[in-house]
Design brief:
The structure is a single chain. The strands form three sheets. Strands 1-2-10-6-5-4-8 form a seven-stranded antiparallel β-sheet. 3% of the residues lie in helices and 39% in strands. The protein is globular, with a radius of gyration of 14 Å. With 158 residues, the chain is an all-beta fold.
Length: 158
């Protein structure tokens, strides 16, 4: 999914991503995919919030609000913040985080993993343009999800 959505309350506010809706890029991982999650930008982890929850199919939109999940906010050296969320799925029963608030991370650094069938939601600031299309297969540490001031390549549901 690529759509503009309200920000989860755990990521909202002046110490998070603000309060206005942002574009969310959702990446579903089947049980056959690798489930290591990587940070989309280099910077400092500003917050990590774990939420226990259900284990619905991670391909469902409501999984973002109801499933076990872990939210992250990372801030780059220019003050840009990106939020992302690990979401456990139907088969996934465990989220593991490798970083904590205050840690410095490099772009593409491993920040955690989710055991089997799961999803990652990435919240892009308004000046970051999605560079992926619906149905596109992403490769961790290689696929560019968004670009500052880039040209859109896929449709966004408003």
């Amino acid at each position: 999914m690529i759509q503009r959505v309200p920000i989860p309350r755990e990521l909202a506010g002046e110490n998070g991503l603000g309060d206005a809706p942002l574009v969310r890029v959702s990446i579903f991982m089947s049980v056959f995919d690798v489930h290591i999650n990587r940070t989309p930008i280099a910077g400092t982890i500003r917050q990590v919030v774990y939420i226990s929850g259900k284990f619905l199919n991670a391909d469902l939109d409501k999984a973002s609000d109801e499933n076990e999940r872990q939210h992250f906010v990372v801030e780059d050296r220019n003050g840009m913040r990106i939020g992302f969320t690990q979401i456990a799925g139907l088969v996934a029963r465990r989220i593991l985080g490798f970083v904590k608030a205050g840690d410095m991370v490099a772009v593409g650094q491993r920040i955690g993993l989710i055991r089997f069938g799961s999803r990652v939601d990435v919240y892009l600031p308004d000046h970051v343009v999605p560079q992926v299309c619906l149905g596109q297969r992403s490769i961790a540490g290689e696929t560019v999800l968004g670009r500052v001031g880039g040209v859109p390549v896929g449709g966004i549901a408003q």
